[in-house]
Write a structure and sequence with these properties.
384 residues, 2 domains, elongated, alpha+beta, 21% strand, 8 helices
């Protein structure tokens, strides 16, 4: 494979990745930029799988090398050429394909609800982007029908004991899909000593749950997620809206290359205020176990284990202005910096006090030892 073919192959692969993400309009620009970058740095990391590279490489028409191509072939092969040749020699194995995220029967039960026009955002997850209706759809199962709630939906294997639905997707992939709809993330709710709870801000989102009920004449069931949440104080269903708060990223101070999307730990669609919420209620809602305000509504929640689709449709007309969110984030960050400085000052004060106490105790021990020495010497003299 010569240099020109390697550049062409890289462009085709990048275009295919863009098309997979539903970014067809931006693909030509992305491929042109990638081609320029590949000339400067041929060792650009390629996120496609070995199977995709093998398919693209073997499907590229091969013609008789021209004089210029023969001249190029005399040059040492680039790292991209070597990588492509290595991938071509590797057999396609079943282990290279993404493993199903849920049991096959769940896929089958959801298959009739999934539109062929949706774009799957991650082959390992049950999550799609509906470009026509500008919404994100995530598959999952019912994990709780009765009991107190801190969130409505969480990524699986996180907080199913306090969430109606366990989704077969992480939160950051859903976040990326919501960005593709044009929704602008805001800021999750948080608490301050001066003002108490600062409510979440962001684009308002409608959440709907769809599933198949074989016992009904019309098997497709669709319920607004608010109807599945009961306000324990008023005994009514949820009356407040969810907003696209956007969670936060945590960066390891010891390893700047490692970042973690905080909502992946469970806080995908919350009914209690968490500073790491992806979707949060736009009202104050305590997360303290002693004062949880919401519970599951068993009259509307499907049976336990029921496969469902969760539709998240942002109302982009409610998008906050970038200036508003920037000001809110600065206010929160300033408060957190102030509290961090106060905590560090308190720690230093305690360390200083502990050091002074240790110095006093050491002096006491030293004085006590000095008081004992003359007595010990006099006793030794008497013995002599």
């Amino acid at each position: 494979m010569n240099k020109r073919q390697s550049i062409k192959l890289f462009c085709l692969l990048l275009c295919g990745a863009c098309l997979l993400c539903g970014c067809q309009d931006s693909a030509p620009k992305a491929s042109t930029k990638a081609a320029k970058n590949s000339k400067k740095n041929p060792a650009v990391e390629n996120p496609t799988t070995a199977a995709e590279v093998d398919t693209q490489a073997t499907s590229t028409p091969q013609s008789t090398p021209s004089a210029s191509q023969n001249a190029d072939n005399e040059n040492p092969p680039s790292p991209l050429d070597k990588a492509a040749e290595t991938l071509k020699q590797q057999p396609i194995e079943e282990s290279q394909k993404p493993a199903p995220a849920v049991p096959q029967e769940v896929h089958e039960q959801l298959a009739s609800l999934v539109s062929e026009n949706w774009i799957r955002l991650n082959p390992a997850y049950e999550v799609w982007f509906d470009k026509e209706n500008l919404q994100v759809i995530v598959g999952g199962r019912v994990s709780l029908r009765e009991g107190l709630l801190e969130m409505f939906a969480c990524p699986r294997d996180t907080k199913e004991h306090e969430s109606v639905i366990s989704t077969v997707s992480d939160a950051k992939t859903v976040h990326a899909g919501l960005l593709a709809t044009g929704a602008i993330p805001g800021i999750p709710g948080y608490w301050t000593e001066e003002t108490g709870v600062v409510t979440a801000q962001g684009c308002t989102c409608k959440v709907t749950v769809v599933w198949q009920d074989a016992e009904q004449e019309n098997p497709r069931r669709e319920v607004n997620a608010k109807q599945m949440v009961m306000d324990l104080r008023t005994k009514e269903t949820l009356q407040h809206d969810w907003v696209f708060a956007g969670s936060r990223w945590w960066q390891d101070p010891k390893d700047p290359s490692y970042r973690e999307y905080q909502a992946d730990s469970g806080d995908m669609i919350c009914v209690s205020n968490f500073p790491s919420a992806m979707l949060d209620l736009n009202v104050e809602s305590s997360s303290s176990n002693s004062s949880l305000a919401f519970g599951a509504n068993p009259e509307t929640v499907p049976p336990l284990g029921q496969p469902v689709l969760v539709f998240i449709k942002p109302d982009i007309s409610t998008n906050p202005t970038p200036e508003t969110i920037a000001a809110a984030i600065k206010k929160r960050d300033d408060y957190e910096a102030k509290m961090k400085a106060a905590l560090e000052a308190r720690i230093k004060e305690m360390e200083k006090r502990d050091a002074e106490w240790e110095a006093k105790e050491a002096q006491k021990r030293k004085d006590a030892a000095a008081d004992r020495d003359p007595k010990d010497n006099s006793d030794d003299a008497k013995d002599g």
